[in-house]
Amino acid sequence: MSEPLLSVKNLSVDFHTARGTVHAVKNVSWSISRGETLAILGESGSGKSVSANAVMNLLDIPPAEIVSGEIIYEGKDLLKVDYETHRALNGKKIAMIFQDPLGHLNPVYTVGWQIVEMMTAHGRPADMARARALELIKRVGIPEPEKAMGKYPHQFSGGQRQRLMIAMALMLKPDILIADEPTTALDVTIQAEVLALLKELQAETGMALVLITHDLGVVAEIADRVVVMNKGEIVEAGLTREVYHNPKHAYTRKLIDAAPGKGEIKLLDPAAPLLLDAKKLNKTYGSFAALKDVSLTLARGQSLAVVGESGSGKSTLARTLLRLEEADSGEALWKGRDLITMGRSELLGVRRQIQMVFQDPTQSLNPRMSVYQLIAEGWDIHKLMPDKSKRRAKVIELLEQVGLSAEHVDRYPHQFSGGQRQRIAIARALALEPELIICDEAVSALDVSIQAQVIALLDDLRQRLGISFLFIAHDLGVVRDFADTVIVMKSGEIVERGPTAQIFEAPQHPYTQRLLAANLDPDPDVQAERRASLTHG
Amino acid sequence: MTKMIGQRAIASLLSLLGLMILVFFLSRLTGDPAVLFLPIDATEEMKQQFRALHGLDLPLIEQFARYVWDLLHFDFGESLRKARPAIDVVLEAYAWTLPLALITMGLVITTAIVLGSLAAFNVGGFFDRLVSIVSLVGASAPDFWIAIVAIVVFSIGLGWVPTSGVGTPLHWVLPIAVLFIRPFGLVVQVVRGSMLSALGAPYVKTARAKGVKNLPLIFVHTLRNGMLPVITVIGDQAAALLNGAVIVETIFGFPGVGKLMIDSILQRDFNVVLAAIMVTAVAIFIMNILIDLAYGLLDPRIRH
């Protein structure tokens, strides 16, 4: 193998924070050659982005401090070159794209201006930059490139914004493209398109691609080699297939095992009594129809998943059932009483029985309330547990049910990790002894290993307490593991419904088939097979 | 955008009307102009004559009706003191206040934006600390005190500039300098804070990854985003100056609208007071619309 294009050697970076020094990465080494794709895989806090940020000189020093190491590119140590030399490399030789293209594009300038600037900032004439920008915007598949140049980032969809970011990154034909979670914020079908685009462009230009991700499926789809990071260290590195099939490190094994979508598929108990029966729900916002004649039934102890891409109406459905939004028409019978027309006082009683767990526990838990206050608040609202002396013991019991303990009672949300916070949110829902819990993307923001734990917890609650779940999710692997029935939504309509096994093994509707095909399998061989069948079929 | 401006215009007209009512009646509560205006030994007969001449003997409500009627014809009445149309007196004063306010705000905006942005970019550094201290002092020092000290030092002590009055460009130096300090201190702090958060935005990271140089990074990529909260404060400060810098104009004998207003209030020259207030209100109303337009100009998301 020839000399690598870029190599990071023994890099250690500390972050000096108010709470002490954090060793963000320790002795990290990796390298990449022309035309190669390297994935840096890790969960949140693993330090997977730190070395790439060091390559781009994007670390804020202080609080960051580069303790040791070197980053060799074209014979020079990038950690030692002066600011101007490094700046001239950024964008021109090494370009970067990010997770959230809406935040990472400047909201007040047109995308054309921003793409053109990639070249003008490196001294190229503006007319040449404009011509190249038009060519690339067309290449990444944005319709009407001339018009697109004059639009602002908020006028594009998420997938289009990431395509524009890619066009911008490729303006100066860089040797290396670093992509930091480039598809995490995108729907599965869009994710598949963007990954395919990256691969095509790589084949055309021969650039090296460094892909930072938490998603084994993305690694399986695109990477030649992978380095696995945990707590700031590289625990394993090698060819993607080998690492997947023969993981040497315990952490890698844990990650691979935690990947959803491999468990036994659950079956619905046909004898379970009906709890919720919704018929022909409609909801429009102005001229936009968010729900079109949506009907569903839900039995006691059932876990019904609603899947669909953003904008498909799945969250509106949940909000309508909870009467957080008023439906335009239709009915939703909750144990025979219509939720849609129910009076305020009756609704309050029903709201105790139907609880909700949201996607982002950081936002859904009031940061100024302790765990005790958060969980006990519902009792005040619904005038339950009047004997306050017993409340504390009950809160502790609930915490233990979700895998936390008595010592957590008086802490505040910021003192917990993301997974723990979601457990608190679940304990809060359980406090009211609900019969139905609506989970709106409740595990999407969690790391894979935590995700598996939370899913196991929910399933345990379902079996032990007979709670029903309406489980809104976009991650098909998670849905396959948790749900016994699946509803597929698209543009406010239910396009397919059925038992989980049927949906996953014999999908009927083309949209369901497309969703399943775009869903990435963590096994590189499965992905390779799928790609082959797509190109030949 | 046009709809928003239209709504703002209607709301402003309504508040102008409210203001007119409030000021008219409040000013009538402060005392009898006939007593104040005429010599101390004036007879009751002379006072009656004075009141009749100026319509001050009519019932209050009728005086107000007349006033509104005249206003609708852009007639603000005569100045009691100067025996000239009140509006002329006010506009004449505005011809002094307006350039004073514009020059001061122009200087404030440019210096505060440059210094505040650079301080935010070098956060925690020596320059940042220096700017923070200077701006804090500027924002908290009382202007009447600065005005008097400035006269003592620069006019009386060093003799560089005249103490008061107008006539030469040198006469403008001290009023502008004194008026500059407070808004400068405030605006620098807002610019610094706003730029600090804007510099932490993801798009700044993108710009750095693109290899954009520091100056365009600060003044092209970040500033336009960081300006939105700043504009609000600038508008607020500019409104205070358009009101006429009462204290500073009085101390420096500057014939602006602030001084005119104080003089007219002391002399119970109602028509002038009312005209001054209405003209000021219109000026502030126009400025607010300009600020709304500036928001739209800076941020396409507001425009669309």
UniProtKB/TrEMBL annotation, chain A:
Keyword ATP-binding attributed: yes
SMART domains named in the record = AAA
Predominant location = membrane
Query: Keyword DNA-binding: yes or no?
Result: no
Query: Keywords in UniProt for this one?
Result: ATP-binding, Nucleotide-binding, Transport
- Which segments constitute the ABC transporter domain? 8-256, 276-516
GO biological process terms held by the UniProt record = peptide transport; transmembrane transport
Give the superkingdom in one word: Bacteria
Q: Name one Pfam family in it.
A: oligo_HPY
> GO MF terms on file?
ATP binding; ATP hydrolysis activity
Gene Ontology cellular component list: plasma membrane
Q: How does it sit in the membrane?
A: Peripheral membrane protein
The subcellular location is: Cell inner membrane
Family membership, please give it. Belongs to the ABC transporter superfamily.
Record's protein name? ABC transporter ATP-binding protein
**From which lineage does this chain's organism come?**
Bacteria, Pseudomonadati, Pseudomonadota, Alphaproteobacteria, Hyphomicrobiales
Automatic annotation (TrEMBL), chain B:
Say if the entry is tagged with keyword Transmembrane.
Answer: yes
Q: Is this entry keyworded Magnesium? A: no
User: Taking every annotated instance into account, which residue ranges of this chain make up the domain ABC transmembrane type-1?
Assistant: 94-291
| Primary location group | membrane
Where is this chain's protein located in or outside the cell?
Cell membrane
Q: Which PANTHER family match?
A: DIPEPTIDE TRANSPORT SYSTEM PERMEASE PROTEIN DPPB-RELATED
Name-wise, this protein is ABC transporter permease
* Taxonomic source organism: Devosia soli
